[in-house]
Amino acid sequence: MSSRTAARTATRTAAGATALAALLTLTACEGGDDAAVGSGIAAIGGLEGGSGNGGDGGNAKKGNGLGFKGLTKAGSMAEAARIINGYTKCDRISSTKSDSSSSDSDPDAKYDSKTYSVTERGYCGRRNVTTIFMIKDPKVFQAAFKAEVEKDHANGKGGNINSGPIIGQDFAMGSESSDAMAALLAPGSGMLLLNCHPGFNPPSGFRKEPSLVKGCILTDYYKD
User: Fold this and answer.
1) Residues 11, 140: Cα–Cα separation, whole Å
2) Alpha carbon 184 to chain centroid distance?
């Protein structure tokens, strides 16, 4: 093996080791594949954790310019699960979560038909749970999520400003897996992330389109 080839091999090996170390660090922070790090909108909406500041993100691209009207529509829980399964594992949908035996122990219970216009909840995934909410009135849902974000900011719990639920026209979802969240924002998925955090400012080149509620935007940018 020439010295130049050996150098290239060593460089690739070092890069692989660095990537593996980063992955292990992320897994440790999230509690591993078998750990439940949260549930529902509160966990995936970034209402717990760090905070940040930013500008208006005016340099973000507009995408197709259709905003909410450009999102995919499921029509049923089964179809929503099929859409999601095209991008991340969601092949066994259930109407109940295995570790939630009552409304008192279920953190998703507050996302109800009255406040959030949620008509049905579904769960899929074996190690990292993905939660799906079917929504009757998307504007009511978005307004309720915005109010929750504002309440947390007022209480000093700004949370991760680069996160939120991923939505279609009539459903929303979140996952305990950051990889699943990122996969669902792939180009052409028909889904975008609802971000209602003040000061959210994605890097240039990411979409920033209006949602149905003033103060919230739809974006394909997500960072755990």
Assistant:
1) 52
2) 8
Cα torsion at 199, 30, 146, 210 (round to 10°)?
Answer: 60
- The whole-angstrom separation of Cα 131 and Cα 108 is 9
Residue with tokens 């079917």: 134
Query: What are 103-156's pLDDT values in tens digits?
Result: 455 778 888 899 999 999 999 987 889 999 999 999 999 999 999 999 988 888
Give mean pLDDT, residues 91-113: 74
